[in-house]
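so my prof wants the structure for this chain in the tokens format not the other one, which i didnt know existed until like an hour ago. anyway here's the sequence
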Amino acid sequence: MGRKGAGVLELAVLGLLHESPMHGYELRKRLNMLLGMFRAFSYGSLYPCLKQLLANGLIIEDRPPEEPNVAIALQSRRSKIVYKLTAEGKERLQELLTEAGPASWEDEGFGVHFAFFSHTRADVRLRILEGRRSRLEERLEGVRAALARTRERVDSYTLELQNHGLESVEREVRWLNELIGRERAEQEKARTSGTTQDMPRETDG
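here's what i got, hopefully its the right format
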């Protein structure tokens, strides 16, 4: 897994463990639901990630009590280890949630960042949404230019596939426009409300 993919997986693991401690199997299922919607998720990449997070002190293992039978003990430990976030892990998660650069709005990272928007500052959410929209608008220009060049030279099925891709991007841009509009309205409402609360009251006389 590349550096970008490792960063996305780190955010996903820390974010899920922030919600609740989990067994490895449960964590795998939740990650598949979260990451599988946006890209192929390899289970083989999870355990190296957990090992690194443990080494960095970002998570800990809560192991079950020792069993007298060695074989039972090994099976028990594997099946019952619970991963928990440490204080350092919580700090690292907050650090990752403040990142609003290109990695947070590319295809690989946007969905995971969006999944944890409820834990993300409003200004960071807005930057990520606007960055994602800009990236997709660039993609739209490229797709439209390619369609204009190749429309007369491709068969009807290829043309349908290209149109489908174009419509998918256009649909996401409309969705982002709605989200950005709501985010800006909420921020303006909060700003106005704060200003109103801070205004001195008029006194009689």
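also thought this was worth mentioning. Residues 196-205 have pLDDT under 50 and may be disordered.
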